């Protein structure tokens, strides 16, 4: 059983070593009809999770809660009783020198990936930034945003939706929502660290509302920041100590390698809320186009006297999206979801109200764990 792609496509990719065979990711058991021995696979960016019991790949599941001691299959690997073998690596093509050709390639990939999405039962997680706005412009599906009433994401989503002549459903969060959802998230993902929980909470709560409204699939903009240079640490390479690379493109590649761990969390979060994630920006076609983007179209170099923090990020994505979006939306900066929704601020507030003060080491994680003990 393969999740996310046809088994024949995965077998062909395995035989050829093609790490981007035209899917949006896959995982599962690729054993043939003539054997009971499992051959667990997971695509090169880990876009679908897959687990087996530690030391026993004959017992496996897409859901870690089905297992006693789940061990994730590493991205790009095959797992058999003989161990794990890496079979796919992310391509590392040279940068394309023609800027116009780069932008057109990204635009074509975005058009193809979104055109391939079935709109039946689909909603869009919409923050008002360029990532989700591309999905909103290209997909015939209702828009949803989650956040506290005074949050950046709620205001940005409302204003972007108005600029695009769209409606947007706002899921206003409360402290009670956070307290209820934290144990459910921890149970689904197995994670209690503050950062993972803060990121997952708004995804979970918007997905709950989407499911309650009758939709079973949620389009998300995951992958855009990693692929197109959306992080400050990429923009500041090589000066930023959070990356080892000495170029913007090298730093971009470093953050792309963090996707498997992030996507495992996000997929499990959304499934626990009752929806299946759809990630058009992580389509193989988009990934392939993004990997050839030169550094100057990931991060625009500042002019003389301009602070490094003021550079434009995700340049190629913004230029590609400008065909479908108002300029104000295509050029808008966004905050990370845990900050834009104010979930990080309010979870910190709850932790302090419960006696977990900031002077304590990792006080929010301690609070999270107290909610599930």
TrEMBL record:
Key word Chaperone present: no
Annotated ranges, domain Asparagine synthetase: 106-238, 244-354
GO biological process, alphabetically ordered: asparagine biosynthetic process
Cited CDD domains: Asn_synthase_B_C
Region described as Disordered: spans on this chain: 1-38
A molecular function (GO) term: ATP binding
InterPro entries listed in its UniProt record: Asn_synthase (IPR001962), Asn_Synthetase (IPR050795), Rossmann-like_a/b/a_fold (IPR014729)
Gene Ontology CC terms: cytosol
Keywords: ATP-binding, Nucleotide-binding
PANTHER family tied to this protein: ASPARAGINE SYNTHETASE, ASPARAGINE SYNTHETASE [GLUTAMINE-HYDROLYZING]
Listed name of the protein: Asparagine synthetase B
